[in-house]
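Need C-alpha cells for this chain, all 70 residues.
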Amino acid sequence: RQERALIRVLDFSCAGEAAGLERRLRRVAGVRHVTVNPLNETASVTFDPVRTNLAELEFVVRAAGYRAEE
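Here are the C-alpha cells for all 70 residues:
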C-alpha cells in the first residue's frame, strides 16, 4: 500500500534548491518517489504509510529550512 502527499513548500530562494530537498525526502524510510517543483512551490511524495507519515515528511521540509503547508 502506498499514499501520495502534496506538500506546499514555501521560501525557495532559487530553483536549484529543489534537488537538495528531493534528496533529503528520498532518505526518509518508506519514501518511494519524490518530485519537487519550485515554480509551483510543491513537493509530491509517494510513500509507504506503515514506514512514514505526512508529519514526518513536513518535518524534513522544515528542517531543510522551508515552510511546509498541506
